[in-house]
Design brief:
By secondary structure, the chain is mostly beta strands. 4% of the residues lie in helices and 42% in strands. The N terminus is likely disordered.
């Protein structure tokens, strides 16, 4: 074949190009990029949304899936996920125009306006080469070196594996190049992909809205004719055997961008979104090892698209989600059933700011009061659906925390408590002993561990004795001036945390050692929620989920 690539490039550009927003922040040139003061990449990981896979590329070992939060990397040999390539690792902010897997080595080539970036996952090396124009096609020389042949602005450039660019005077011959197969090529080879894409969605449940599968990108494994990788709009990445039309969903990351609320699970964390996606909404499970992911959509009767998560807590096989549209109970077992309570069911307000659970239900703190919701509402009382009496009418309830049988309440008017609250009749609301004026100011967050209860206000963090009788003490090391507007506070046997819109303060309970994580240097955005287990610290931000590894003493590396 002696024809040039002029007639072959149109289809390649249409199928391979994609726009990735929010996946940048630096350039490479052989470094792994900034990590916000953390030395090793596994010490700090950002997980975003990869439900919309805008482009797919395959090398000999890896699959690269580009989404709105960066590029997810799947190891085909080990059947495991590698850390994603994001702005934290030096990926450029610029629009990605073309993506190609390297047929010679396990690397990714991606084009951005004015440059070509090569990424090697094994060494975490990011290499950038400057070119003139906007790349719209990346192919590879069939010669032994396998250099990349890039077309940008109608001009051709050869880029070596060490990043040296050499202009090419004449368009190369198609027979001299290796062209990665694109979605158009896959449609031609396997027409069923175009005519019956719904065959991919084999997990459709009867109580979920029917969603059509929309394939937006695709690539084929270079050495396996029966292995195709497809990116969808809203359903993530799929591995497909086109011969038998057998597909395997490979969800990665969050179901929607941003995290509004977090809750610990036995082996990971559950995350609720901010309602920013128009495609999907619900809960995302992220395993502690970042290998296991699970998405739970809203149902037909309880849609969660566009719903913002404000608070989240799990108990046994149930999750209680406070949203801006009511209180939602989600079964985390195989049924994944949902039930919602709103103003028409007896809630004081649709905005559920805080939740505290018991075995038979949950207390919901809303923007206009406190109420108890029974988990057996559908069988106990059809009229009230298990909603108890209202307490603290017209009072915003920002935080709830149980210490034994006492429910502590963080309100706009300060700290309050109910001893042995009853879901049907409520209880007697009292205030803790103390003369500190901060006890009467708005309490934004509560946290408890062993014998210590922390209450965070806009200007101080108070340490209270849950059993009473002791004057509250201000925790000066948790300086609210460092974090901006306070959002959350947390404590365990080793460490205390105070989170806000400007950062996080981490304090050791053993020696008082303090570390401040700031926005945007250490964290990408305001911390809306946090969750802590033995090995990791999780932060929910509008830019995604952040996982930080903890040292043996509970601090950060």
């Amino acid at each position: 074949m002696t024809a040039s690539l002029a007639a072959l490039s149109v289809g390649v550009l249409t199928s391979s190009s994609c726009a990735v927003s929010g996946a940048g922040g630096g350039s490479g040139n052989g470094s792994s990029g900034p990590l916000g003061g953390f030395g090793r990449r596994d010490e700090r990981q950002r997980i975003g949304s990869f439900s919309n896979v805008q482009a797919v590329a395959v090398s000999r070992r890896y699959v690269f899936a580009a989404g709105s939060s960066g590029i997810a990397i799947y190891d085909r040999m080990m059947n495991s996920w590698l850390p994603p390539l994001t702005r934290d690792d030096g990926l450029t902010d610029q629009q990605i125009t073309v993506l190609a897997g390297d047929p010679v080595e396990d690397a990714l080539w991606l084009g951005v306006p004015g440059g070509v970036i090569m990424y090697r996952p094994l060494t975490e090396q990011l290499q950038r080469t400057i070119v003139t124009g906007v790349p719209d096609l990346i192919a590879f020389d069939r010669a032994a070196t396998g250099d990349a042949i890039v077309r940008a602005g109608g001009e051709w450039t050869r880029i070596s594996r060490v990043g040296i660019a050499t202009p090419i005077v004449r368009p190369p011959l198609a027979s001299a190049l290796i062209l990665p197969r694109t979605l158009s090529d896959l449609y031609t080879q396997f027409p069923t992909l175009r005519t019956q894409p719904s065959l991919l969605l084999r997990t459709q449940q009867s109580d979920r809205p029917l969603r059509n599968v929309q394939i937006v990108s695709g690539a084929a494994s270079p050495e396996r004719a029966s292995e195709v990788w497809l990116g969808t709009a809203g359903d993530g990445l799929f591995r497909l055997d086109p011969t038998f039309m057998q597909s395997t969903p490979l969800p990665y990351g969050l179901i929607e961008p941003g995290v509004g609320a977090l809750a610990l699970a036995a082996d990971g964390v559950w995350a609720a979104g901010l309602g920013q996606s128009i495609d999907r909404g619900g809960l995302s499970f992220v395993g502690s090892d970042l290998q296991r992911f699970r998405w739970i959509d809203g149902t037909i009767s309880v849609p969660l698209v566009g719903v913002r998560g404000l608070s989240l807590i799990t108990r046994a096989s149930r999750a209680w989600l406070g949203t801006d549209r009511g209180l939602v109970r989600v079964r985390l077992d195989g049924t994944q059933t949902m039930r919602v309570w709103g103003v028409l069911d007896g809630l004081p307000d649709e905005r559920v700011l805080s939740v505290a659970t018991r075995d038979d239900g949950a207390w919901a703190g809303t923007a206009r009061g406190l109420v108890y919701v029974s988990d057996s509402s559908d069988t106990r009382n059809v009229r009230t659906r298990g909603v108890g009496v209202r307490l603290l009418d017209n009072m915003p309830v920002h935080a709830l925390q149980f210490t034994g049988d006492t429910l502590w309440i963080g309100t706009e008017a300060g700290v309050m408590a109910i001893v042995s609250p009853n879901g049907s009749v409520g209880g007697v609301v009292s205030r803790p002993v103390g003369s500190d004026p901060a006890l009467r100011r708005a309490v934004r967050a509560l946290a408890w561990s062993d014998t210590v209860l922390l209450a965070a206000t806009d200007d101080a963090v108070l340490r209270l004795a849950p059993r009473g009788g002791v004057e509250p003490v201000r925790v000066d090391l948790l300086d609210v001036r460092q974090v901006g507007r306070v959002t959350k506070v947390a404590i365990d046997e080793r460490t205390m945390w105070l989170a806000g819109t400007d950062g996080v303060v981490v304090v050791s309970r053993r020696d008082g050692a303090t570390r401040v994580l700031r926005v945007p240097g250490d964290l990408p955005g305001p911390v809306l929620d946090l969750a802590v287990n033995r090995d990791y610290m999780w932060f929910g931000t509008p830019q995604g989920l952040i996982r930080l590894r903890r040292r043996g003493d509970g601090g950060l590396p």
